Amino acid sequence: MLDSDCWNFDPSDHYVTGGEIVKDLRIAIAGGGIGGLTLAAALARKGIDATVLEQAPAYSPVGAGITMQINAMQALRHIGLAEKIAVAGIGLNRLVLRTWDGSQIFATDMAKPATQYGAPFIGIHRAKLHEVLLAALAPKAVTLGFSVQEFSQSNKKVVVTSTDGRQVEADILVGADGLRSRVRQQLWGDEPLRYSGCTSWRGVIDNDGFVPSDEAHETWGDHSNFGMFPMDEKRAYWFATELTEPGQSDADDPRPGLFRLFGHWHNPIQQVIEATPKESIIRTDIWDRPPRSPWGQGQVTLLGDAAHAMTPNMGQGGGQAVEDAIVLAEALSRATSIPHALREYEQKRFVRTKFFVDNSRRATRISHGMTPLLSFARKWVVPQIPEWFRERQVQKVFHFET
Ligand SMILES: Cc1cc2nc3c(=O)[nH]c(=O)nc-3n(C[C@H](O)[C@H](O)[C@H](O)COP(=O)(O)OP(=O)(O)OC[C@H]3O[C@@H](n4cnc5c(N)ncnc54)[C@H](O)[C@@H]3O)c2cc1C
Q1: Predicted local confidence at residue 15, as pLDDT
Q2: Among 15, 36, 78, 364, which residue's beta carbon has the most beta carbons within 10 A?
Q3: pLDDT at residue 3 in the model
Q4: Which residue from 255, 256, 263 is spatially nearest to 221, judged by alpha carbons?
Q5: b/e string for 50-85 if b means 16 or more Cβ within 10 A?
Q6: Which of 13, 18, 84 is nearest to 47 (CA)?
Q7: For a substitution probing ligand 1, which of 37, 53, 177 has the most ligand atoms within 8 Å of its CB?
Q8: Alpha-carbon span 68 to 211, nearest angstrom
Q9: Atom 15, ligand 1: which residue's CA is nearest?
Q10: Relative to the CA of 306, which ligand 1 atom is closest?
């Protein structure tokens, strides 16, 4: 049965013209995470109707922080949301990298590129980010509890079916359904995920002077990392990673294990772990995918982690999902042929997202000293990287264009 409630206009309005800009598009977005919601907001701004089909029955984003870096904030500026996100989060002006005993490896100034690009580097709680994105959408734009099971394409239409048999018809389906995307699986089969070698823990604490209000910190030990940054004036977020086998879980309280790994590291790491309620610590194994091209077929494409899952070492997975959304909305607003516009968007995004997938994976391997050679590189080569080279990388990371 077609679920017409998902649309806030009459489907009979719909028509597609050849050679001219395609009008009255209806776009179904599988997944209402950072990427899906940003796309819906960007399409709404272009006057294009989109419905977000989200499997969760209610919104409860992971209780953790996220960085929206300068490139992501430039992208969000295109849809008028950068300022709101900056207000909901906090600006980070310095990134400091240390070894486990507290010696500084280097510090990177974020205030300079922020001024250059006219967009700040932000730390924010994920729930706040979702709130701002949701507030930019029409009330009926998200259908909760719609778990995409499969889709079919014919006559320039896509019909999306949920696990409980509801159906939505659209001109385009965008799979923004994350790392284990159903849409991607139907398009390309069971391409295996790639384990990064690391598991992660995340926690949120009251920032009782643990980290300065405008700094992000990361510390590298032999096979583990610990990082921390503020998310607003009062709270901070931390993450910890360890080189280990996938599929392990913690006993009731993960903190004793974390003390064993990080208890002897520099202050205030032990105090931060102590200050975190055990229930709020989230453990996630880190996976990515080897880049593939094309991402989609016909009237279907992918976006965000569904297209290019990457390890979090460059803090860019969410940022790249945001960039995808802005570029896709722009392409669709000028489309004269849907498949052409979708393939153009994929091509445009492929090189940049591959850069992040490859370099994030490399960063994971180096920062965890995954082999003796990488351990050597981490200890002796990384601290010697000249500032001009780091600045050049920073420019590449932060330069966003639609
Ligand atoms: C430890 C860690 C730290 C990170 N730190 C950062 C950071 O600082 N900065 C940054 O930019 N990125 C960071 N990332 C990466 C970032 O979280 C992801 O890249 C980002 O969330 C991807 O957004 P997305 O919308 O593509 O997917 P998701 O956020 O995963 O959203 C996918 C959505 O699809 C829904 N869904 C799934 N299957 C279906 C289905 N079948 N039907 C309907 N809905 C479905 C899900 O419920 C979910 O809401 C981090 C990741 C990790 C693991």
Answers
A1: 35
A2: 36
A3: 53
A4: 263
A5: bbbbbbeeeeebebbbbbbbbbbbbbbbbbebbebb
A6: 13
A7: 177
A8: 18
A9: 317
A10: 26
Which domains does the chain possess? 4-61+128-193+289-364 (3.50.50.60), 65-126+195-287 (3.30.9.30)
CB of 305 sitting under 6 A from ligand 1: yes
Is the CB of 202 inside a 6 Å radius of any atom of ligand 1?
yes
Ligand 1 mutation pick, 29, 51, 54, 199, max ligand atoms within 8 A of CB: 54
Q: Note the pTM of the prediction, 2 decimals.
A: 0.94
Q: How far is the CA of 283 from the centre of ligand 1 (A)?
A: 15
Find how far residue 150's CA is from the centre of its chain. 24
Query: Is the CB–ligand 1 distance for residue 302 below 6 Å?
Result: no
- The residue contributing the CA closest to ligand 1 atom 41 is 148
State the Cα–Cα distance between residues 323 and 357, nearest whole angstrom. 14
CA torsion sign, 9 to 11 to 13 to 16? positive
Q: What pLDDT is recorded for position 232?
A: 95
Residues with Cβ < 8 Å from 328, sequence gap 6 or more?
39, 42, 174, 301, 303, 345
Q: Is the CB of 30 under 6 A from ligand 1?
A: yes
CB of 357 within 6 A of ligand 1: the answer is: no
Please, what are the averages of pLDDT over each run of 10 residues along the chain (402 residues)?
A: 46 46 90 98 96 95 91 98 98 95 92 95 97 95 97 95 97 98 97 96 95 94 96 96 95 94 96 95 97 96 98 97 98 95 97 97 91 78 80 90 90
